[in-house]
Amino acid sequence: MGKYEELAEARALFGIEEEETMAVVKRKINALLKKWHPDTGSGKEGDGARNAKTAALVGAKKIIMKYCEGYRISFGREDVERYLSPEERWKRNFGGDHVWGGNG
Question: For the chain, does the N or the C end have fewer beta carbons within 10 angstroms?
Answer without folding.
Answer: N
